[in-house]
Design a protein that fits this description.
alpha/beta; Metallo-beta-lactamase, Chain A; 6-stranded mixed sheet; 10 helices; 15 strands; 38% helix; globular
Length: 391
């Protein structure tokens, strides 16, 4: 078993980190980002020195020092807004009706159906968010295709007729960002922020891969091409001010993918986790992912942060522990059982049924039976990789 895993690891290693530009551990990345985050919310001047992390004071005020400010006049104006029919609704068959709801101060979230892409959900499955600023709106992960984007845009305009002045994309998977196209159609000069790895990976083929997946499963991709790629790269630890709304981003290279941004909105103390956390469904881990890294990232976020609201990539938002713990506990159990099987020289398929029994509380999660065995196999490969590296 160990020899088999080690050979698989060597092959897997050749496929990993294709787009990585930074080489820090999740713990180091988190520590550096949170030091900067603490400095932003502190009641003193912002500094960029490296120091040990202390607890964030969520009652502190945010200062403007060292924050890149964005001139919203370079994007669009309110005159572009057209009136919408407020009586219409965004409905998806058996999944019901969807709208944005105020989740935290000036943050609105539409929680998508917690299922894999299919014909009835039309490719809508993530959690688009809107942050209302003084003169404009900022959107996080607008959705999975042009047609869904048009519907989400209509729902946004029920919140406010202010123009959309910026978009954040959390990672490379098209179910989160393909709806950029609908917003860019109306606001052609808009800034779209993402990590450089996300931009590079998407342009070099990841977008086409996801187009194929979503077109095959939903048949709802008409109008999504040409892709509206992000045009503003943000590196780990970047601070940005958009119309008075202050953000700091973290790039956890070794977690869900190597293209992710975890986005902290400091005005409302909201943390957008992307697919580093899911609730109610399981996605896939690819060659750039690390389950062990994802565990380390989430354990550090739990230990070192206390935001008002945590927003997963899929599933309901909430307080820190209620949002993070289900997915983190799942990953930790996989790691524990995977290590045990590895030490006993067993294959993942030999233990998957027993592991599944220990995860009976997840039996109703979407794609659980399909993806859990693959996740178990991946974590065992990672365990073997770590052992190989130590020899």
């Amino acid at each position: 078993m160990k020899k088999t895993i080690i050979m698989s690891i060597i092959t897997s290693a050749l496929l990993t980190n294709l787009y990585a530009q930074e080489h820090k551990s999740p713990a180091t990345i988190l520590e550096e980002a949170l030091v900067k985050m603490e400095a932003l919310v502190a009641d003193t001047n912002i500094t960029t020195t490296e120091s040990n992390i202390t607890n964030l004071d969520i009652n502190s005020t945010v200062t403007d020092t060292n924050i890149t400010k964005v001139d919203i006049n370079t994007t669009t104006t309110e005159s572009n807004i057209t009136k919408v029919d407020t009586n219409s609704s965004f409905t998806l068959g058996k999944y019901g009706t969807f709208k944005f709801e105020k989740a935290n101060k000036n943050v609105y979230i539409m929680h998508g159906p917690v299922v894999s892409p299919n014909r009835e959900n039309q490719g809508f499955m993530n959690n688009p968010a809107v942050i209302e600023a003084k003169d404009g709106l900022i959107v996080v992960d607008p959705g999975g295709n042009y047609n869904i984007g048009k519907k989400i845009l209509a729902e946004i305009e029920k919140i406010s007729h202010k123009p959309i002045i910026a978009i954040f994309n959390t990672h490379k998977h098209g179910d989160h960002w393909f709806a950029n196209r609908a917003i860019v159609e109306k606001y052609p000069n808009i800034d779209i922020y993402a990590h450089p790895n996300m931009i590079k990976a998407s342009k070099e083929g990841e977008a086409d891969v996801w187009y194929g997946i979503l077109n095959r499963t939903t048949g709802n991709l008409k109008g999504t091409k040409p892709f509206a790629f992000p045009n503003k790269p943000l590196l780990d630890g970047a601070k940005i001010d958009i119309d008075g709304q202050k953000f700091i981003v973290q790039h956890p290279q070794d977690a869900h993918t190597d293209t992710d941004l975890v986005i902290a909105h400091l005005n409302s103390m909201t943390l957008f986790l992307g697919d580093n956390v899911m609730k109610g469904r399981l996605g896939s881990f690819d060659e750039s992912s690390s389950i062990l890294g994802n565990i380390e990232l989430l354990e550090n976020i739990k230990k070192e942060t206390n935001f008002t609201l945590y927003v997963p990539g899929h599933g309901k938002s909430g307080k820190r522990d209620e949002t993070i713990d289900p997915f983190l506990n799942y990953l930790k159990l996989l790691a524990t059982e995977g290590k045990k099987a590895y030490d006993e020289d067993k294959e993942s398929y030999e233990v998957k049924d027993e592991v599944m029994k220990k995860l009976s509380w997840m039996k109703d999660w979407d794609a659980f039976k399909r993806n859990m065995p693959a996740h178990l196999n991946k974590v065992m490969l990672e365990i073997g990789e770590e052992e190989l590296a130590q020899e």
